[in-house]
Design brief:
Layout (H helix, E strand, L loop, with lengths): L1 H8 L5 H7 L3 H46 L7 H22 L8 H8 L4 H49 L3
Helix pairs in contact: 1-6, 3-4, 3-6, 4-6
Length: 171
């Protein structure tokens, strides 16, 4: 709501009116800067989670295949083909998750061109407004990465399950 209020008042209020209408704007400004940092950390954590899932499933799959090496190798069956297909799907989803999505961060060139000449209070007011818009976009990107990462994990578990079935020789 504050973003829409700031947007409405953006060009209609003087500096004194802005300070009177939004007395806490100077307190909100550092919080907005911290919000960008926190959002970036969440985005990076989601990417690391995706990488970890792929590495974990690959390690377990290789360990399962290593166990088979000591025994007589089961014949190539449909369960091995399904496991391979699931693994390739998991890796494809993982790669897509890594390259899809980005964060909306402040553009220093735009700040320089359009906002550097503004009074401090108006600069902060605009920065807070655009930070709110960026936050909505960034949260959507993080949530989308999370959903795709969940699919990566599901396909990884299915891969390991099919490999276990192949090793047991049941299918």
């Amino acid at each position: 709501m504050i973003c829409s209020l700031l947007r409405y008042y953006r060009y209609t209020m003087t500096e004194e009116e802005l300070k009177k209408e939004f007395p806490s704007i100077e307190l909100a400004y550092p919080l907005v800067q911290e919000a960008y940092k926190t959002t970036k950390e969440r985005f990076d954590a989601m990417e690391k989670r995706n990488q970890t899932i792929i590495a974990f499933v690959t390690t377990l799959a290789l360990a399962l295949l290593g166990l088979v090496g000591d025994k007589q190798t089961p014949p190539v069956t449909i369960s091995l083909a399904i496991a391979a297909l699931l693994y390739l799907t998991m890796v494809a989803i993982g790669i897509y998750t890594q390259v899809k999505g980005d964060l909306s961060l402040p553009n220093p060139a735009l700040l320089y061109q359009k906002n550097l000449g503004l009074p401090p209070i108006e600069f902060q007011q605009r920065f807070i407004y655009w930070a709110g818009e960026d936050y909505k976009y960034n949260i959507t990107q993080i949530n989308n990465k999370g959903k795709l990462t969940n699919f990566t994990a599901i396909f990884g578990l299915l891969t390991l399950f099919m490999l276990a079935i192949w090793i047991s020789g049941k299918f």
